[in-house]
Amino acid sequence: MAPFRNPDAPSLLLVDDDTVFRERLARAFRERGFEVATAGSVEEGLAVAQHESPELAVVDLRMPGRGGLELVRELRALDASTRIIVLTGYGSIATAVDAVRLGALNYIPKPADVDDLLAALARGLGEPSPMVAEAFQAPSLARAEWEHIQRVLADCEGNISEAARRLGLHRRSLQRKLQKYPPAQ
């Protein structure tokens, strides 16, 4: 059974290990007329793409096992015309550059909704997006610092001493920063 059955609808492959997030996005894309196939891992995504190559793919960067950048590379090898957007909760400039070098059209941070993804696709193609009214507001420096600290702390599985070492901070300084409320966007 082919994952994409409607030849008139744009086909989209959505690969994310977060089941709730993946299904919410899939439903939103279906409501906008896309034919959507979903996968929870790189291997599942490749199996779908090998069966029938999608026109568009939304790929999570971090998944258990092989990562999203590997999937970007393999999707581009299967079909160079597949337009790929990388989606992640752990954004950095280095990984954004890597994703684009591997062939992704764009790279956007989580949380993102279908309108954010359609806008990223339009920006990646250099087209204006009539479907989305874009009003991007960059986070404040304090907010960006707070989010970075939270990502590093999550990578260290909550170990404050290890997170402080990776951040180049004294443990007590990090503890003081963590006691503050997150800054406004």
TrEMBL record:
Keyword Transcription regulation: yes
A molecular-function term among this protein's GO annotations: transcription cis-regulatory region binding
Ranges of residues in domain Response regulatory: 11-125
One Pfam family in the UniProt entry: Response_reg
Membrane-spanning parts: none
Record's GO cellular component terms: cytosol; protein-DNA complex
Protein name: DNA-binding response regulator, Fis type
Organism of provenance: Stigmatella aurantiaca (strain DW4/3-1)
Lineage per the UniProt record: Bacteria, Pseudomonadati, Myxococcota, Myxococcia, Myxococcales
